[in-house]
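Quick one - first record:
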Amino acid sequence: MFNDIFSSIMTNGTFTGSGFAVSTLAAFLCGLIIAVTHMKNNRYSKSFLITLVLLPPIVELVIILVNGNIGAGVAVAGAFSLVRFRSVPGRGQEITGIFLAMTVGLATGMGYIGIAILFTIIVSAVNMLLNSIGIGDENKGIKILRITVPENLDYEGKFENVFEKYLKSYTYDEVRTTNMGSLYKLTLSVVMKENSSSREFIDELRTGNGNLDISLGRMIDNIDSL
């Protein structure tokens, strides 16, 4: 009984009408599970969720159509490569969701319904588990601080007293010139102390940088892109 999960519903390498219907419904179901899992654990857009639901049945039909046809398979591979170059880079979780949806579509297109559903459930469950245990959450408290200072200001050691007062930790990430070299822009990764006021922190920094631009915000997710 258990081994039936790993067998294909295809008969002599071809689909029947009922087999096609079962595969398509299974692909939609797997896509829906993937989309719901992504929605619970990540930022998302309506367009991306719809893509996760529709991608498995689309890939399924492609696999069915190119089954046994080498020329068609090569043409489809070229088409998929063009789609990649028309896409913007995504976050790691988004890329994983797309690959999972395509893998499920491939499995259902070859008739392996049990494998597709089982694999979707396992991967989705592991995804939710990893998010629930907070793996990687140590970076959530990190913010990016950007301070603009005039070129004649010796910024080294200038703000350390303020940092010690309001920050739990800080690291200089980048120092660069701007405005034809007349200004410096300092970029730091900082962790605020509990109950510290961001407004008071910025106000004290302003007194030391000549009231030039200062920004304090969350860390951008570009480190998570692929």
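second record:
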Amino acid sequence: MARTIKKEILDRIAIIRFNRPSVYNAIDMELAKELFDELLQSSNDKEIWGIVITGSGEAFCAGGDLKWISRQEGNYYKTFYAIVGQFHRAIIEIKNMKKPVVAAINGMAAGGGFSLALACDFRIIESHAQLILAYPSRGLTIDGGGTYFLPRIVGIAKTFEIIALDRPISAQEALNIGLVTEVVQKGDSVKRAVEFIKGIIKKVPLHSYGICKNLVHESFRNPLELQLEKEREAIAYASQQPDGKEGILSFLEKRLPIYKNS
């Protein structure tokens, strides 16, 4: 049986590609499990410095595979509860990843596919691609962390508008409202995503990026006093790491830093 996820390594960057093009990369249980496994392996691999997530064929990801769900034994509650629980392991892994994660949106991102793209740190979308929640207008609700990430990206008012209208959002509109980072030509999203991560790594060492990413996520639940203490501990810790010391030394010597991301 063909794997539902393909992975390749390009210049220390893992490209994780959904591989169910005949169903627009819709998520069944196998894909959800393989996605989590590949993300976990990439997170723990010291030779990998960044992750790109994309789709095969015409779509990025169509969300949950409702045809697959309808064929499972038992009621919908049991099936949704099981597959969404597995899918959410992947979302948590992306959020906790101490490396840059970029969604290369090569086509339609709907339902859980939309939410997964939102969970990534950055989103590069091709000019023809669209985003849509899809589930509300089918009498369902949002999964994949969509209710967590969407209001944090576009605000509560815009989130309610997106839910209530549940219409396709074009690449240009997505850029205008801050849903995506860049719009590129058709076929260029993966290439640009790799370049984007290379640009980050060249300027910001992984330990700094990972710590700052974690601090930002924690800031939404911490009172100011606790957040300030966490920032205090983090900068003291970072200053003692090899790349932290190199950053300070390069400033004192008035030169560009050379990070090893060790």
